[in-house]
Amino acid sequence: MSLKKILYGTAYYYEYLPYDRLEQDIAMMVKAHINVVRIGESTWSTYEKQDGVFDFSTLDKVLDAMHAAGIQVIVGTPTYAIPTWLAKKYPEIMVQIDGKRQPYGARQIFDITAPAYLRYAERIIRKMIRHVAQHPAVIGYQVDNETKYYGTSSDNVQRGFVQFMKDQFDGDLDALNHEFGLDYWSNRINAWEDFPSMDGTINGSLKAEFDRYRRGLVTQFLQWQVDLVSQYKQPNQFVTHNFDFEWRGYSYGIQPDVDHFAASEPLDYAGGDVYHPSRKHLTGAEISFAGDLLRTLKHDNYLIMETQAQAFKQQVPYPGQLRQLAFSHIASGANMVEYWHWHSIHNSAETYWKGILSHDFQPNPIYNEVVQTGGQLAQLSDHLVNLKAKADVAFLVSNQSLSALQNFPFSDQRNYNDVFRALYDEFYKLNIRTDITDEHHIRLDDYQLIVVPALYSVSDTFLEALNAYVKRGGHVIYTFKSGFTDEHVKVRTVQQPGIISEACGVHYELFVDPDGCQLVPQDATIDGHSDLHLQDWMELLVPDTAQVIAKYDDPNWHDYAAITKNQFGAGSTIYLGCFPSADVLRQVIQAYAQELNLLPFAATFPVIIKQGRNQLGKTVTFYFNYSSEAQTAQLVAPGQELITDTTVTAPVRLDPWGVAIVESSPKE
Amino acid sequence: MSLKKILYGTAYYYEYLPYDRLEQDIAMMVKAHINVVRIGESTWSTYEKQDGVFDFSTLDKVLDAMHAAGIQVIVGTPTYAIPTWLAKKYPEIMVQIDGKRQPYGARQIFDITAPAYLRYAERIIRKMIRHVAQHPAVIGYQVDNETKYYGTSSDNVQRGFVQFMKDQFDGDLDALNHEFGLDYWSNRINAWEDFPSMDGTINGSLKAEFDRYRRGLVTQFLQWQVDLVSQYKQPNQFVTHNFDFEWRGYSYGIQPDVDHFAASEPLDYAGGDVYHPSRKHLTGAEISFAGDLLRTLKHDNYLIMETQAQAFKQQVPYPGQLRQLAFSHIASGANMVEYWHWHSIHNSAETYWKGILSHDFQPNPIYNEVVQTGGQLAQLSDHLVNLKAKADVAFLVSNQSLSALQNFPFSDQRNYNDVFRALYDEFYKLNIRTDITDEHHIRLDDYQLIVVPALYSVSDTFLEALNAYVKRGGHVIYTFKSGFTDEHVKVRTVQQPGIISEACGVHYELFVDPDGCQLVPQDATIDGHSDLHLQDWMELLVPDTAQVIAKYDDPNWHDYAAITKNQFGAGSTIYLGCFPSADVLRQVIQAYAQELNLLPFAATFPVIIKQGRNQLGKTVTFYFNYSSEAQTAQLVAPGQELITDTTVTAPVRLDPWGVAIVESSPKE
Amino acid sequence: MSLKKILYGTAYYYEYLPYDRLEQDIAMMVKAHINVVRIGESTWSTYEKQDGVFDFSTLDKVLDAMHAAGIQVIVGTPTYAIPTWLAKKYPEIMVQIDGKRQPYGARQIFDITAPAYLRYAERIIRKMIRHVAQHPAVIGYQVDNETKYYGTSSDNVQRGFVQFMKDQFDGDLDALNHEFGLDYWSNRINAWEDFPSMDGTINGSLKAEFDRYRRGLVTQFLQWQVDLVSQYKQPNQFVTHNFDFEWRGYSYGIQPDVDHFAASEPLDYAGGDVYHPSRKHLTGAEISFAGDLLRTLKHDNYLIMETQAQAFKQQVPYPGQLRQLAFSHIASGANMVEYWHWHSIHNSAETYWKGILSHDFQPNPIYNEVVQTGGQLAQLSDHLVNLKAKADVAFLVSNQSLSALQNFPFSDQRNYNDVFRALYDEFYKLNIRTDITDEHHIRLDDYQLIVVPALYSVSDTFLEALNAYVKRGGHVIYTFKSGFTDEHVKVRTVQQPGIISEACGVHYELFVDPDGCQLVPQDATIDGHSDLHLQDWMELLVPDTAQVIAKYDDPNWHDYAAITKNQFGAGSTIYLGCFPSADVLRQVIQAYAQELNLLPFAATFPVIIKQGRNQLGKTVTFYFNYSSEAQTAQLVAPGQELITDTTVTAPVRLDPWGVAIVESSPKE
């Protein structure tokens, strides 16, 4: 699906305004070249003040006014925050965690499988979407918002899970007990009606399966909403969702509670929200990883449904950063950049999560930069919209491994996403574009190199496919813990790292805590003066056919390998048996990428370069400076700098937090 | 209300004694010139062993024995710790937090609005006070003890709150929804019966209102007890209460859960307890702030109902400190110093919160110092009792702002009281006496300078009154976050800092986390070699008419102001847009105080000077040395040193932790 | 009870195997000279898949196969992990903590007094033990496993406790109220039916009594199981239990929740599990203290039911350590060393608590060292089995003091066991063998020196017995907090440290937090260049007759003593009024031991020497090197080194983590 122009916009909450200033707001938006707003996704109690009494007048008012101003609208179904009356009427719909029903208050604290919730949600969706579908301002819909399963272990979820397991094992309890090792600590289930609540389970494999089941509930829920909305939506309207990521005060990594890869299938557009550190902590890595993931979901451009304007006190951007960030999204493949949100809110939970406007609604430095950015985007829209790029490298990520490693942690401080990000960030800094996908969706042969962080839980079949991919010429980087357990998180009984041992040419019997151990480089890959310390984990690798890149410095274990490389058939693998420093990771990745001819640009972070092909058939090269010092970047290809509309043939000079966009004729 | 002599005493728990030693205890008290004890406030289960069976024999015995020894008695109503039988009979009276009823055990874990509790509490109060009121030993009553609302969110409290809101908004739900921004996240309340429990609320404004309502319950409860006691008390007997403060292992700041200003209204005397660091950590600041607050409550002398003797292992005083502390209380305006407690307890929760006597009841260094101190106080009583002092500076504190900032924190490490204390402690160390009061009780024109820490939530009316006060010649120091929200914690929609912008001559649109930023002094107020670091918060101030005292060193924001000063009408203001170091605060305050002629003494901490007028019409100047090194203080006025009964005309030499008290004829 | 040979073995879970490999496992065991396995203790749900349906076929299969291979079997009663069907049928048996019933999942989460649990447990025990008792492979039984009371405060436990108190106080509530000081905070119990739940109690003495009562439940439970098993067991079979210790990720100190001294009475053998730090953190101290305690329980050899093979990633031993550890257990008096466990488990909670084999079941470095160790043990069995040794020093430990100090902590970071270990470890490092027992079992006159860490709660009678022991020539080291409270944790009303003041020749009134204070040595005992800092606690000792070893450096308290020594009658005492560094403790202990002629060997840690008499009447001296550097130890007595079968007459050279065992003729 392609758009006609870059969408630049903001979430807009007319309902939250302390006084009516719709006209003033729209005037300020128009000045800022804002051409889209997202509305409606959290105001169920305003549209249905009492059970069955609907009032869409504020919705109509906003739609009409926006349309009059030429601003398009994405309408959200309002189902992720329920009205007070619904919670009073059906207290059983509130999410239950460890047997305790959560009190009403926050959004996203009901059970998304509760029949009473679903009945009322369906009615408001139908009423609302039917009401707005014909409105000319409406270009698309967002179903629900940042849906997850909210930790629910309500009785009906438990019942659903038991049925799911019954189906999966064809009712064969012996098979279930065997696969999940339930004899342990007398946990055997000898009759389906004995299946205990997952609240107290100590079986990490079963817990991971429960998490997988619950991620499936999210997939089903979104599919159900898409189906409902589709009954009303017009052909020119799209349906999307706002996915979010592991949250550490900002978007850190893969979302543990949602299978983005499955859940995005019914959507027309992948959409998501991206929040990130700012000021001197800004690197752009979050925009890049989230963009790579969202883009790969549908192998298409995507929508940034939310990203920060002022946000929290620690996130207020330096002058120039906001503009840089908008272009960064576009460079990663976004067709829309939408801020959260227009005006800072005067009450409740997100008062200090500030929008474009402060609480006083006056122009301010952030708004002024939105005006500037909006103008440039509007001017360059034809050159930037529907930008395409191909990645030669893919990250293979795994919700199931993430869940499993929560139950079987390799560290008390770091999780799956730390491994993912440790690797991802080095590719990002080396300016190597990557796709990000999972084992059910990856097209192996599209890529020269596949990066596999901690693929802890996965089927034999997929590991064999990876072996075959290498054999026929592919390349893989594996980290520690990969291949350890099967798809039900049962540890493999073969020598570790299991099936991939063959392609990796190593095996191990023991793994230990580093506790001060360091690496000892064995060849030129790693500089002996690097930061050689290790964290969390070290496997005592025995190379079978592999070449040793690094060993450990503990005299008791100095014969074992730490990092190895192996030729296998026409391809090769790198196996990281430990968690080294960023410094070492960079060197290993850079050397390997060099060897595989995967380093497109000489520049590295803080100069970030992204390239794509625009709909005019031209190559567009973005140069970003992610630092407070001016930088000069070697010119990748001469052409026309779009923002300044000047011809560039010499190295590109970049201001602090600066951007240059050079359009050139493709070489090929 | 004035007393005839300084009361020096202790809490005494005859009921807790491991063996009867009333006579020995009284003999030891008499030796120490102890002339008052507080009894009875936590022994309901001893006086009423079963429902309706009363036995006041131990009370009588203690009253008689004390009276015989010439020791006066304050009797506490025993309602803050309930008997086992009452908890068994009416389990519903136990406090409910997050839907969980707390188990019996501790004191202060019942719901102070529970009808069953109130019925039984009323009966024991009536029985007990009627029983003792005629006893000649009884000089007064303490109603309950350290009353708070104990975090209760029981159903009846919830119902009461809904009614409170209904009354406040005249039943107008639209007004309520608008004022508290309840459209946000679908939290609208469209019928009063839908009002959700406050347990789960994410609306910080509503939560702050709930806290205000619950502080009101404490006020009502104390009023109710005073009314009950007043039906029996004799004309020469007083009623007081034992207020306490924010607890950080000692008395740190304003009490979050009680509105001292309202709750003290029905009392004859303000009373409170003060605990503080000791040994090398002792500064006296807690005694001073608590004393200033208690004194201001009724603009009269106050009673220290509890302060530490040995207390916890980290609080055992150095030789000399205990005596210094007693005089410090007097110097702040106390008419009574009562220790908690006489004998260390041999069981239960406070075994290691030691009293004057250790568990062996023998004389010990602390007791010996009590004997010495008691002797001196008895000797000097006429010179020290009913001491009066006038403050030219007032701190304007706010329970509502404190609550609101718990819900909308400016820091993950510090709260309202840290701002209050950061400022207070510098005034204390500069020997500037202050009153401490709230916006409903302050008499603005009594003061030359009003210090306003983080007045986050307050009405327009009061801010306008402050503006007017400045205009007609007053002076105000404001900190960051002041004026931001209205009395319902709704953020103001005008330019920040809202209404006070006018008097401060600044405004701001952005505020950020310091994250390493430092101050850049703009004039001589702040020494460039000071500790210029900032914590928690910085507002990017735009001076309108204000003069800039300091800016920020971040090159992106170096045009903004950090600390400003403004002439407005006949007065002036200082606005602190950030949270600077103690070092910087001291300089700003000292310079301003100097300019306003508010620095009474040359000496500064560790020499602390307090001055008052005694009932003999003389000026009494206390000199304290709060350090382990001897100090010499310039003589403020020649006169008679009372402890040594010697004439002083030269500088005052102070031993480590020493005290001198000079009585002189007033200058005026 | 004596064994014919050293037992060397492992826990074996046939039921947990991912595929049947019984024959291969046994072949590998035979190769490793494994001659015993423990089976059955956690697989109730496998043996009784549904209520009343029993199937012991896997048990039979393992017994037959083991017997055929000459491997003996210890059978565990399977009662510490209950089946899913039992939890479904009787949800009321799950343990209740703070009023919340715990969900099914983990082992050891039911109430060991619940009638339904006991009824079903009895049936499976009877069925199972009757089934296996005649099998020739079975040499003994383990009743339950690591039994504790699991924090239960279920209603029936509460009822039992009330009855226990009623019995203890002959129904005299006044006595109860007085002894526990229940007048405090109105906690008086004026009718037995008012006795409140212990969930909320703030009475630390009562809480400690509740803990004592609950430890008694464990004693009763084990006695009940022993009685059941004894109805079936054959004369040549033994009954044991697997005791464990305070857990800090490894066995740290005395078990808080079990009275090992009482609970071991019905057992034939004391048994226990020992886990400890490994690699460079290995000292052997845990093996030694646990061994000393287990050995003293029955004054006989004991069984190590579990100790680590690979265990967690931080515990994988260096080459040589596993062998050293096995001999260390033997040297302390163990007759069996059994690993937990044979094969690493492929699912559930202990997947990363690895056994001898990794998940791939292949030989690995750990297994190889087991093979080597097993061979040496088999060869030396006659020289090592039933080894006896006498200790001249005893540690007097106290579950009740441990519990009481949890309720009345002297530190926010350390507890009773830290004091115990601080002292124990110095004796260990000085190679002084100790017994470890409690006040109900100690035979005072068996020892020259008794070490008494923090004997906070104990009867007058016992303290008087200690005084008498000193008077007639015994020696005691006491630490701070000893003697402070009686057996019901009521603080003594005499001068502290109470009754022992007489033998110690000191008293104190005040105790304070060190807060930077250091020791000032007063004689040659402590080197002035030692680490003189103090932690947690310092009593301001006043020497009456005692000689002062150290004082405090605080100028305010420099007259007080910190460590004293006193002659009393024919004996002497050391009193440690503070918690000094390991450095100081070592010097005080070493000097005292020297004086008392208790230092058997010149060597100290990292050379550890243990000596015993074997059944051949020879003296066996073990030399261990607990370090990564080679060491040379002076020869204690010439003789035959057993492992290498060579005569040694010169100093013993020890490799890193090395062992030498010299058998010689006894001197006496």
Strand content of chain A: 15-25%
Number of helices of chain A: 17
Largest protein interface? A-B, 55 and 45 residues
Q: What's the multimeric state?
A: homotrimer
Mean pLDDT of chain A: 97
How are the strands of the largest sheet of chain A arranged? 9-8-5-2-1-14-13-12
Report Rg of chain A. Answer: 26 Å
The named CATH superfamily of the largest domain in chain A: Class I glutamine amidotransferase (GATase) domain
End-to-end gap of chain A: 26 Å
CATH topology of the largest domain in chain A: Rossmann fold
Summed up, the domain count of chain A is 4
Largest sheet of chain A: 8 strands, parallel
Shape of chain A: globular
Keywords (chains A, B, C): Glycosidase, Hydrolase, Metal-binding, Zinc
Enzyme class (chains A, B, C): hydrolase
InterPro entries (chains A, B, C): Beta_galactosidase_C, Beta_galactosidase_Trimer, Class_I_gatase-like, GH, Glyco_hydro_42, Glyco_hydro_42_N, Glyco_hydro_b
Family (chains A, B, C): Belongs to the glycosyl hydrolase 42 family.
